[in-house]
């Protein structure tokens, strides 16, 4: 089961850590949740190459085919472009820009 909505409001940290708001939950490749983190890391100011290194600590992401990660990055950028529409709110705009930045980075790495 994948969460797919890794935003700061969905991770509650205290004595225990809780992942909440499972509205976008789905099934898929085990590396996808780690890939979703990359967009959020880029939105928070990380460069794409640096953001890609953090999920590498998870074996499923480290073993993911590079071509599949690139396809995901492109699809994710298209999804955020569609969600953002012509007049996005601030956080949607950040995610659209971050996902586009990551997708461009993946294209340049090919």
Automatic annotation (TrEMBL):
<dbReference type="InterPro" id="IPR011009">
    <property type="entry name" value="Kinase-like_dom_sf"/>
</dbReference>
<protein>
    <recommendedName>
        <fullName>Phosphotransferase enzyme family protein</fullName>
    </recommendedName>
</protein>
């Amino acid at each position: 089961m994948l969460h797919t909505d890794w935003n700061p409001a969905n991770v509650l940290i205290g004595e225990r850590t809780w992942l909440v708001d499972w509205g976008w939950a789905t099934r898929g490749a085990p590396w996808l949740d780690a890939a979703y983190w990359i967009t959020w890391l880029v939105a928070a100011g990380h460069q794409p190459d640096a953001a890609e290194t953090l999920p590498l600590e998870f074996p499923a992401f480290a073993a993911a085919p590079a071509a599949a990660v690139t396809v995901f990055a492109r699809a994710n950028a298209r999804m955020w472009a569609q969600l953002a529409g012509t007049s996005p709110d601030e956080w949607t705009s950040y995610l659209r820009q971050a996902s586009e930045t990551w997708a461009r980075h993946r294209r340049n790495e090919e």
